[in-house]
TrEMBL record:
Gene3D superfamilies: NADP-dependent oxidoreductase domain
GO molecular function term, any single one: oxidoreductase activity
Residue ranges occupied by any NADP-dependent oxidoreductase domain in the UniProt entry: 15-312
UniProt keyword terms in alphabetical order: Oxidoreductase
Lineage: Bacteria, Bacillati, Actinomycetota, Actinomycetes, Kitasatosporales
GO cellular component, one term: cytosol
Record-given protein name: Oxidoreductase
Length: 322
């Protein structure tokens, strides 16, 4: 396993991060394709045995059961001080007022709820799950600072938003002497490269780690176009992210993978790992092969010609994933 510093911090993270949205009770939350605890634990153990130390979940994943499953598995299989554990806050956790968002009340409530479900005293990375336009950024950033100062989180991070919003949050924190974000978890893959315009250059300039979600475009980069899965058939959010007309890119991945004699996932991930700004792609796994391919991608060196073939068909598209 390869390790790298998370942005400009001293924190060592594996170059592959396990996305834990795949782990959770199927009858809790909107994702009926998730794995229950019995099916999840072998994959978490496999990731640890491969040297991965970085795990990312969220309070909303499967109505909190992702955090519960991940927390118990890591307690059984690993030493807490060796693990980098990340979770997120913003999504709706209960009906009625104050059930979601990035208010001080929501943040202070949800960090304690997440810690209880995870079975730990702290998380290493506490991330806002996108932007909250209904709460003053000063309120959010001060609350996150207080979470860090209380010892409940070591670092704070952000996720998909516009670069001006991220800049505003960072400036607000710096102006007030509050904790700044050390990472950006954004939507970035071969089918969606709009982050290259502003967000990635901003993160590079400011020393912010980049943790792309959906690095395989919800599996579109790994299979033939006419093949569907249980997730692709039921993932309503995923259906909003991509569009018709990406065939050339998908075909280029397939062609290079065939020439190399490797699965397509390795090619798509190798391209992402090649991007200078990227710290660690967040890879979801429902089968052992998914983790095998992610780890193997670290050693796959693409040629300049192959990279050109993968990138050339891309055309600009509307912002998605915020």
């Amino acid at each position: 396993m390869q390790f790298v510093k998370l942005g400009s911090t001293g924190l060592d993270v594996s170059r592959i991060c396990v996305g834990c949205m795949s782990f959770g009770l199927p009858d809790r939350g909107p994702h009926e394709w998730t794995l229950d605890e019995e099916a999840s634990r072998p994959l978490i153990r496999q990731a640890l045995e491969a040297g991965i130390n970085f795990f990312d979940t969220a309070n909303v994943y499967s109505d909190g059961t992702s955090e519960e499953i991940v927390g118990r598995a890591l307690a059984d299989f690993a030493r807490r001080e060796e693990i980098v554990l990340a979770t997120k806050v913003n999504g709706s956790m209960h009906e009625g007022p104050n059930g979601h968002g990035l208010s001080r009340k929501a943040i202070m409530t949800e960090i304690d709820n997440s810690l209880r479900r995870l079975g730990t005293d702290y998380v290493d990375l506490y991330q806002i799950h996108r932007w909250d336009p209904t709460t003053p950024v000063e309120e959010t950033m001060e609350a996150l600072h207080d979470v860090v100062k209380a010892g409940k989180a070591r670092y704070v991070g952000a996720s998909s938003m516009y670069a001006w919003q991220f800049s505003k949050a960072q400036y607000t924190a710096r102006l007030n002497g509050w904790t700044r974000f050390v990472s950006m978890q954004n939507h970035y893959n071969l089918l969606y490269r709009e982050e290259e315009r502003e967000m990635l250059p901003l993160c590079e300039d400011q020393g912010v780690g980049v943790l792309p979600w959906s690095p395989l475009a919800r599996g579109r980069l790994t299979r033939d176009r006419d093949v569907t899965t249980a997730r692709s058939r039921t993932d309503e959010f995923g259906k909003t992210l991509y569009r018709q007309g990406d065939d050339e890119i998908v075909d280029a991945v397939a062609r290079i993978a065939a020439d190399r004699g490797v699965p397509r996932a390795r090619v798509a991930l190798a391209w992402l790992l090649h991007q200078r700004a990227v710290t660690a792609p967040i890879v979801g796994a429902t089968k052992p092969a998914h983790l095998d391919d992610a780890v193997a991608a670290l050693d796959l060196e693409l040629s300049e010609k192959e990279i050109e073939q993968l990138e050339q068909p891309y055309v600009p598209r509307a912002i998605s994933g915020h």
